[in-house]
Design a protein that fits this description.
By secondary structure, the chain is α+β, with helices and mostly antiparallel strands. It has helices spanning 20-26, 80-89, 111-126, 133-147, 155-162, 185-194, 207-220, 222-245, 248-266, 271-282, 308-316; strands at residues 3-15, 29-45, 53-58, 68-71, 97-101, 166-172, 175-180, 195-201, 287-290, 297-302, 321-322, 336-339. Helix content is 42%, strand content 24%. The strands form two sheets. Strands 1, 2, 3, 4, 5, 6, 7 and 12 form an eight-stranded mixed beta sheet that branches. It has a four-stranded antiparallel beta sheet with strand order 9-10-8-11. The longest helix has 24 residues, at 222-245. The protein has two domains: 3-183 and 335-339, Ribosomal Protein S5, domain 2, CATH 3.30.230.10; 185-322, GHMP kinase, C-terminal domain (Alpha-Beta Plaits, 2-Layer Sandwich). It is built from eleven helices and twelve strands.
């Protein structure tokens, strides 16, 4: 029996704190994000025996990252997450595995967490265990953040596990809560038209490095960081309300503020990305930000109807690649399993 699990990545629209070092400063945090039906990680357990290999297929950039196959005993970093997950789940599977994705590397879209949620779900399904999104997300967080020591926040694991498009999440000492945001269909469709997503370039620093730098800043200047985090959390709540109300011009302006506060907290880390943002604003964007922890990867911008075509031309001049995407709808799950 072959088992295939697909999970979505996300766009982080507003982050009011989802890492332990930030939550320590402000007590609780929140996030508004949206999962993509168009961009995914897929993990498969094949129905062969005694092969113990992993095939990796990159649909986004197969020239720079051609298809490759590794023996599981190989000492390569691309196997670390799978090995750690198999060890944590106490499984010793001799089948071959396959990993497929159309997500750019180092994109800031939460890819590694989406992959791990897919891995855990497929491996547990093979063991005959029930697939519970909250449990899967918590386990994925524990493996990546605690067992492997990869710095980062909570949202990516829970987003990939729950899916369903637009979500509001709260992070408190007693745990994580996930609430589906019921946006009107016409609001979602307008966002798909006016919120433009671009892959700009690989990040200057990895997400782990950015989180290390953010934690260091929080520890050195806690009062300043706390004030900015409270402002950012308040802005995230306003973004939630504008989306629910369908007030998208206000959303665009709040998105600009979200990016500006983020830069004050972390620094952009890259003059090129600063120049892209300046160009975006000069060509009609109401707001925009770098996706993920910062320093590169994807950027997205909210652009009014009448500016879209000229905006696209301006950003294309930087060498950025536009990613055509679709948001998941509320009925689309995060964890999609099938057997063959």
């Amino acid at each position: 029996m072959k088992i295939i699990c697909r999970t979505p990545v996300r766009i982080n629209l507003a982050n009011g704190g989802d890492t332990d070092y930030y939550l320590k400063e402000i007590g609780w945090g929140c996030v508004v994000n949206a999962t993509l039906a168009s961009h995914f990680y897929e993990f498969a357990i094949n129905d062969d025996d005694d092969n113990a290999t992993l095939d990796i297929v990159d649909y986004f950039d197969y020239i720079a990252n051609p298809n490759r196959t590794y023996r599981l005993e190989s000492n390569v970093s691309e196997l670390d997450l799978l090995k750690a997950t198999m060890k944590e789940l106490n499984v010793d599977i001799k089948n071959s595995f396959a990993l497929r994705t159309n997500v750019p590397m180092q994109s800031g879209l939460g890819g590694s967490s989406a992959l791990n949620v897919a891995m855990i779900s497929a491996l547990l399904h093979q063991k005959g265990e029930e697939i519970i999104p909250h449990k899967i997300a918590a386990l994925s967080y524990d493996i990546e953040r605690k067992r492997m020591g990869v710095p980062g926040g909570y949202q990516d694991h829970y987003t990939a596990a729950y899916g369903s498009g637009f979500n509001y999440m709260e992070f408190m000492p007693e745990g994580v809560s996930v609430s589906k945001m019921e946006l009107k269909d016409d609001v979602i469709e307008k966002l798909e038209k006016n919120l433009l997503l671009f892959y700009i370039a690989k990040r200057k620093f990895s997400g782990s490095k950015m989180h290390d730098l953010q934690k260091e800043t929080a520890e050195k200047d806690p009062e300043r960081v706390k004030a900015l985090l409270l402002e950012k959390r308040d802005n995230a709540l306003k973004i939630k309300e504008t989306l629910l109300a369908g007030n998208l011009d206000s959303f665009g302006k709040l998105l600009l503020k979200e990016g500006q506060i983020k830069t004050k907290l972390t620094g952009s880390g890259n003059e090129f990305f600063e120049s892209v943002m300046a160009l975006a604003l000069e060509n009609g964007a109401l707001g925009g930000k770098i996706s993920g922890a910062g320093s590169g990867g994807c950027m997205f911008f909210y652009v009014p109807d009448e500016k879209i075509e000229s905006f696209r031309k301006a950003i294309a001049s930087t060498g950025a690649v536009e990613l055509n995407y679709r948001f998941q709808r509320g009925y689309e799950p995060g964890i999609l399993l099938k057997t063959l």
